[in-house]
Design brief:
Strand content: 15-25%
Shape: globular
Radius of gyration: 24 Å
Number of strands: 10
Order of helices and strands: EEEEHHEEEEEEHHHHHH
Structural class: alpha+beta
Distance between the termini: 13 Å
Length: 317
């Protein structure tokens, strides 16, 4: 059996508890909660991020501020009739944006873990190979562990892993970590498992108890906590509004509040460009899925499971 795609950092010591088995049908007793790794929550499928790709586009976003600076300098030099400097600034301004944008949008983001409601199975890509497992018979575990380091002391974490099979070689498996375990508790991981269970069994929309409902209010409230870079300014303004309401019209702004607001306003264009760069790169990366997976993600695609196709070829798990 292959190890998980995520490398474990080796501390001075690591103590693990007995794993808790997770089931597609049996509840863990926790309420559903989203742990900020949902990439897409669609009617047909739920995709989960597998790395730190949310920071993708940051270089383009930051350097876009440099592009704006060069434009301002060009205007300034034009007033002084420094035409050579104007030409240089107008040359550097677009390059400061185009070069990092072109480079980042052509990077390959890691493909997400996909839970497909229509076919009731899970898809994952590892080193160019497709892995999958049927949802109804899924094998998953969650466990807590303590890591003790020389400088960090003891830290508490919890991991959740599912077992997936290599497409075409069902006996070749790996344990796939669903999200990073660091900073998580067993309660949180069980709650996220309930979020996935509610989506696959009762979804796509469900309430805080995980029961099916027609309203998407609860799901949206969970996903709203996962802020994109361009949401930071709006989130800060919302917090300031709450602070004003709590102060009942009294002076509620501190110097730090004003400074923080100005910084967020200044960086907002860069954050918007960061999100744009990430979304373009994500769309390009999604095309790396083979057609056998892509067609099953479409609303009108086939509903046959990959494991059924393997069994038709005489391949058994």
């Amino acid at each position: 059996m292959d190890m998980s795609h995520q490398t474990r950092h080796m501390p001075l010591s690591c103590d693990e508890t007995q794993p808790t088995r997770l089931s597609a049908e049996i509840s863990t007793g926790e309420l559903p909660i989203e742990l900020f790794i949902t990439d897409e929550h669609q009617n047909n499928y739920l995709s989960l991020q597998t790395g730190t790709e949310t920071n993708h586009g940051l270089i383009t976003g930051i350097l876009s501020l440099g592009s704006l600076f060069f434009f301002v300098m060009a205007i300034w030099m034009a007033f002084d009739r420094e035409w050579e400097g104007v030409k240089l600034m107008l040359t550097l301004a677009p390059l400061a944006f185009i070069i990092p944008f072109f480079w980042e949008t052509r990077q390959k983001l890691p493909l997400p873990i996909i839970f497909n409601r229509r076919t009731r199975e899970v898809y994952f890509e590892h080193h160019g190979k497709i892995y999958h497992t049927p949802w109804d018979d899924i094998q998953a575990i969650a466990y807590e562990f303590n890591m003790t380091g020389l400088y960090t002391g003891g830290t508490h974490h919890a991991s959740m892993e599912i077992r997936v099979h290599h497409l075409g070689e069902p006996k070749k498996t790996l344990m796939l970590s669903v999200g990073t375990p660091f900073g998580k508790t067993l309660k949180m991981q069980k709650g996220f498992w309930e979020y996935i269970r509610a989506y696959m069994n009762n979804g796509p929309w469900f309430d805080k108890e995980g029961r099916h409902c027609e309203s998407d209010d609860f799901v949206k409230s969970q996903l709203a906590a996962h802020l994109k870079a361009s949401d930071i300014l709006r989130h800060h303004i919302r917090n300031m509004t709450k602070k004003r309401q709590a102060a009942s019209g009294k002076n509620y702004l501190s110097g730090l509040d004003v400074l923080s607001l100005l910084v967020h306003i200044a960086y907002h264009p860069a954050h918007r460009i960061q999100d744009l760069t990430y979304n373009i790169t994500k769309r390009r990366s999604r095309n790396r899925w083979p057609e056998i997976v892509l067609e099953r993600l479409r609303p009108d695609g086939p509903t046959t499971r990959l494991i059924d196709l393997e069994r038709e070829r005489g391949l058994e798990v």
